[in-house]
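Lecture notes, unit on binding sites. The following record was shown on slide 14. It pairs a sequence with pyridoxal-5'-phosphate.
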Amino acid sequence: MRIQKATVLKEKPKDENKLGFGQVYTDHMLMMDYSPKQGWHDMRIVPYQPLELDPACMTLHYGQAIFEGMKAYKGKDGQIRLFRPSSNFERMNRSGARLCIPPINVDQAVQGLEELIRLEQDWIPTAPNTSLYIRPTIIATDAHLGVRASNTYLFYIILSPVGPYYAEGLNPVKIFVEDEYVRAVRGGTGFTKCAGNYAASLEAGEEANREGYANSMFVDAVHRKYIEECGAANFFGIKDNTYITPKSTSILPSITNKSLRQLAKDMGMKVEERPVAVDELSTFEECAACGTAAVISPIGYIYDKETGREWKFGDEPGKRCLEMYNKLQDIQYGRCDDPYGWTLVVE
Ligand code: PLP
Ligand code: COI
């Protein structure tokens, strides 16, 4: 792989406790091109730079854009760990299949990412609850205005040192149940990580923020009755020693949620993946949103806009949420053994 190093390096953030989420980018990025003749080719690392796109670029018009989100963690032992990176690239290929984007080679993508991380390792923050967020992306690059799948694509990975996604951190957030907008529907693109899903969710999120909530909870588009997801994170609730999370074809299969289901089992809990009605909220002892960016974000208060009902879970994170949060982060930061083989140490 070609590596072109930046001649001038950027200044790194001075206070790692004030990183926020996705505001600074590292010195280099990884790129790779696709053409029908050459397939995916020319994987390279280059200085972080703007992309030059034709105004007719198909991504800008018809939205063929998919991405992923994962993190690199630097532990107290100085080791760098990636969390289940192959799962992210495999999911990227499932997103791609739905949007007519050709699949990448998962092993090659992981190796390219490792190389990029090695080069940028000084950017991985070490303050508590910080990490290096990794954003692999694929966009269509044909300049063409007829509606069809693009013939050419660009894959790239950028890196951003981050702190907690929600300013609340582990403090429980307030959310509302969205009564008007839906994010996705069966047969649509809800199970993919495509840009359009996020565009479709923006107004509900803005509305939540305007009204003093951290985010909105989406319900299913048909019955308007079953919980789907919370903004850019999956939902789970806990009751009777059981971890319960929605099963739906229109939500993103979260790698964090999958990992938590395993941890919950091994902590002696039962696990149920099934439709979860909004009505059931009154029976939960704890509930939370989970995802790479959010990790586990306990939910303290939920307001149902349609019916005016409200559910209070308290101002402190629940015991089970906290236990699972600590276990997951211990594995991610290498503070305990990883019996699952989830972490990839970048040598
Ligand atoms: N749901 C949506 C819509 C997301 O954007 C994300 C973030 O990636 C998640 C769920 C959580 O998925 P994961 O745990 O794989 O990050
Ligand atoms: C993630 O959790 O990785 C996400 O992608 C969430 C959001 C920043 C889109």
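Take-home: DSSP finds six helices and 18 strands in the chain.
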